[in-house]
Amino acid sequence: MQLQYNSKSTAVKRLMREAKELSEPTDEYSAHPLEDNLFEWHFTIRGPQASEYDGGIYHGRILLPTEYPMKPPNIILLTPNGRWETNKKICLSISSHHPETWQPSWSIRTALLALIAFMPTNGRGSLGALEYTPEERSSLAKKSHTWACDSCGQISDLLANNKAKPMTKEESELINSVTFKGEDSEKVSKPSDQQKQEVQSNAINEEPVINNITPNFFKDALCSDIGMYLIYLIIALISILVARRFYSA
Question: Coiled-coil segments, which residues (predicted)?
Answer without folding.
Answer: none
